[in-house]
Write a structure and sequence with these properties.
The chain is an alpha/beta fold and 280 residues long. Helices cover 52% and strands 19% of the residues. The chain has an 8-stranded mixed beta barrel with strand order 1-2-4-5-6-7-8-9, surrounded by 5 helices. Strand 6, helix 8 and strand 7 form a beta-alpha-beta unit. The longest helix is centred in the first third of the chain and has 35 residues. The structure holds ligand C2E and magnesium ion (3 copies).
């Protein structure tokens, strides 16, 4: 009986694995079609200065509607990385962001755009060259473009990324560490890396009311200040979280409380509505 159960369990896992593999391959196939058809969209979420209420930047976040339903980037980005589609997707995100920045500058709208860069993209030999070319092609001010990379991208092999970061700094582009605090970064490396900003992960923000979490965030903010880095808090959902972060001296905030990610038309309306900080 035990043996039989073992066998059944094995068979079940196997078919489950097979199903999931088929599902993944199917998503990749549909993603490829969507990429070729130009169906992926870049939505934008504001990053607001918590001290002044000014929207200083917008984070571009990919949206893919697959037969009527949105598929989360948390699902399709890893598959895009696995399949190699990320290079094409990533380069179209850079192109879209640069084109949008060009429009903003023509309309005299003063805002930066931050885009997410995955490890594979960042580590490609010609990454900073491509960034330079796309910015030059659109004729944009490089200081308006910000690249968000996760901790693992820079901490995995800090020595080898220093070169890339230095190239990006010399172009004038800004670089932020995304999801800060969730990886295994050694804080001592932070001072060796030419960066501009860190984004405190939502995991800290949603627990900021706990005193221990607040002290960690306080420490991150003071370290960042000493290193001359801007601090952005991700995932602010309640006024008390916002008030807390503001009083700790956090520069920028992003989250559903301020605004959700929106398509470009909606973001234009939002920017024109002169938004205020939704707490105090
Ligand atoms: P991320 O860069 O850390 O982006 C922040 C995520 O938090 C976004 O999820 C955003 O919609 C969500 N968010 C913002 N405010 C709140 C809030 O108050 N509460 C909660 N619960 N969530 C909030 P999204 O858009 O689903 O993206 C997930 C991840 O997918 C991103 O995390 C990023 O790592 C990746 N991603 C999205 N777009 C791109 C892209 O163009 N390229 C690459 N390589 N990755 C991307
Ligand atoms: Mg991000
Ligand atoms: Mg993040
Ligand atoms: Mg994330």
């Amino acid at each position: 009986q035990a043996k039989r159960n073992e066998h059944l369990r094995h068979a079940w896992f196997e078919s489950d694995y097979e199903t999931r593999t088929k599902e993944r391959l199917d998503i990749i196939r549909r993603l490829r079609q969507a990429v070729n058809a130009g169906e992926l969209m870049l939505w934008y979420q504001p990053q607001m200065n918590l001290q002044t209420g000014k929207v200083e930047a917008l984070e571009g976040l990919l949206r893919w509607r697959d037969s009527g339903r949105f598929v989360s980037p948390a699902t399709f980005i890893p598959l895009a990385e696995y399949s190699g589609l990320i290079n094409e997707i990533g380069s179209s995100v850079i192109d879209t962001a640069c084109a949008q920045l060009k429009q903003f500058s023509e309309q005299e709208i003063d805002v930066r755009i931050a885009i997410n860069i995955s490890m594979q993209q960042f580590r490609k030999d010609d990454f900073s060259h491509n960034i330079h070319q796309q910015m030059a092609h659109h004729g944009i001010d490089p200081t308006k473009l910000e690249l968000e990379v996760t901790e693992s991208v820079v901490m995995d092999d800090p020595k080898s990324v220093i070169n890339i970061l230095e190239e990006l700094q010399s172009l004038g582009v800004k670089v932020a560490i995304d999801d800060f605090g969730t990886g295994y970064s050694s804080l001592s490396y932070l001072k060796q890396l030419p960066l501009n900003a860190i984004k405190i992960d939502r995991a800290f923000v949603c627990e900021i009311e706990q005193p221990e979490v607040a002290s960690i965030v306080e420490m991150i903010i003071s370290l960042a200040a000493r290193l001359g880095l801007t601090v952005i808090a991700e995932g602010i959902e309640t006024p008390s979280q916002g008030v807390r972060l503001k009083s700790l001296g956090c520069h920028l905030g992003q989250g559903f409380l301020i605004a959700k990610p929106m398509p470009i038309e909606k973001i234009m309306e939002y920017l024109q509505s002169n938004p205020n900080c939704p707490f105090n």
